[in-house]
Amino acid sequence: MSAYGDYEPVIGLEVHAQLLTHTKAFCACATSFGDPPNTHTCPVCLGLPGALPVLNAEAVRMAVHASLAFGCAIQAKSVFARKNYFYPDLPKGYQISQFDLPIALDGALEVEVEGGGKRRVGIRRVHMEEDAGKNLHGIGTSSVVDLNRAGTPLVEIVSEPDLRSGNESAEYLRRLREILMFVGVNDGNLEQGSFRCDANVSIRKVGETRLGTRVELKNINSFRFVAEAIDVEIRRQINLVERGDRVRQQTRGYNAEKRESYLLRDKESESDYRYFPEPDLPPLVVDEAYVQSAKSSLPELPADKRRRWVEELSLSPYAAGVLSAHPAIARFFDEARALYADAVKLANFVQSEVLRDVRTTGLEAQIPVSPAQVAEILRLVDEGTISGKQAKELYAAVAGTGRSPAEVARERGMAVMSDASAIESIARAVIEANPKQVASYRAGKTALLGFFVGQIMKQTKGSANPATVNEVLARLLGEGGAAS
Questions:
Q1: CB-CB contact of 57 with 65 (8 Å)
Q2: What is the mean pLDDT of residues 389-394?
């Protein structure tokens, strides 16, 4: 039974991802974000008469790399077209895009679905295009336009209608975004609009194969809102059909506060855009040698990395997922792993200590320690120089300093207490001070051993050797008169 009763949602996503080039798709204007309005414009991106576009070769390289990472087939010839529509943020009156001959076809992604299992989501096409500018409303009593973004290179990634819920759609977007980031072609920033999504949503009765009338949800800017907006729209369509109305083909927005979609306009058809080949750009030809070179330079993709970490390094799927959430964090772990053999201990330490201090911005990450410092801290624990608790203290001491952990440990007088006689003296005092717990332990509640270990660690400020502590306690607590 579907989660939506007698109805099955059918969902396809169109993702617009800004390519991380320094200049625009067809001119030399900068693509930097947050600069004063209308300072990155020229006759080409403003569409002034006589100004001719020139294709950005770096944008082509990034589009090819992204397409290959999705398993798409790169087309030997693709053609740019003019997509004609009028809107104030489109200075030429048309958008240069690709229509019937895109740069790549027929890819796929695998996503996890509710209840376990995986779903293969087809990627119908990847095509290159330029972005529009940005309309800003409510500036005083006016609406204004910033054309800095006009002409920024994008890839549009169009999925097949293979998704069946809002949560599946959000998971697909996460996997898509991480691939783009690991390949280094997109910074994944939803707030700045460099990764944004339109969702095509329709419903049909369970068991039917014919597609229903689709509604497009525009520019949803978070994974949570994608899942929420799609679910809200599915239920809106079901309510319409259940009361005898029909679903109209529309473009709708989503109001997160009201948890409802709202009409923007009746949906245009492809013919409304009057596509025709861009007369000022020749066909884009990508030969096989270029494709093979691009394939050979692709980095390890996140799903492959997670699989390798689980199978070869014995990491848990959860740990592998956390450490591959950002390319800079994954790179940090791999570099530390090259310096320290125990991947599981390393993964646990990075997750528990390092990640809480990491700050990510786009593809960059501020990590307060180096892989070498983390590896050195863990080696000090393995050698018995410091305890596990002291490792946390030492991490805090070296974070942001670049200093050698061994040197800082010596300065601070950090050392594991391994003297069995000294530990035994403390243990006897702890046992004597807690007769009720001793009696319960000896009556069979052996889990209380942890209580005694904790008391000794507290008194030694975490410096006691855990193995020695356990050995001493087991002996003393097993002796009926140990506390006398």
A1: no
A2: 91
